């Protein structure tokens, strides 16, 4: 058993979720409200370690009215326990789980255990299937996946994503090294592409939001 997973991201028209320098303020004000409403409805929000290192996000509900109890659990996928001990995701605004692999140095893991729950799974990288099962066992039924593109790729190609919600901002930035919605190794043959079904589309201020169901 695993949670229902919604991948949510904001991207420019050319599919970038950040510039090559890591600048990633893309969503308009109205879309940020949508994102924070989705956070409030979710039991957990999950990101990859590079997102924590690049943005130092709080991953809480703070753009709309919400009580502290409405903050979802924060989950960081971080094989080598590189989450900086002073990062905002470890503050006391919400519970945090750091998922590490067996590669994580014990010293760094014990420092993280002071401010988070640590789940160890996978030999080199975090085993995402096992992590999903463990989160479900801990009561997580709805999980919001908030990137970045490397984690998005692993989750989608492992068949662990049920919905994709994308905000497309009317901006173009280019850059070969700029992260796109989904990077990773990439599927080689178009015939093997992960297929989606468009469920909803609407504008929010200047942005366009597309909501898809992932076909099984
Ligand atoms: N616009 C948006 O909506 C949005 C949202 C989120 C992020 N972003 C941007 O995305 C960028 C970061 O994206 P990113 O692709 O570089 O990194 P990421 O997806 O945030 O993190 C990827 C890292 O997670 C770790 N990981 C552990 N197990 C994994 C597994 N099984 N599969 C995949 N990753 C695993 C790996 O590092 P280890 O091997 O060291 O563990 C991997 O390099 C930032 O610039 C951020 O601003 C934008």
From TrEMBL:
Pathway participation: Cofactor biosynthesis; riboflavin biosynthesis
ATP-binding among keywords: no
Keyword Oxidoreductase: yes
One of the Pfam families matching this protein, by short name: RibD_C
Bacterial bifunctional deaminase-reductase C-terminal domain boundaries: 3-210
Example of a GO MF term: 5-amino-6-(5-phosphoribosylamino)uracil reductase activity
Assigned keywords, A-Z: NADP, Oxidoreductase, Riboflavin biosynthesis
The name this protein goes by in its record: 2,5-diamino-6-(ribosylamino)-4(3H)-pyrimidinone 5'-phosphate reductase
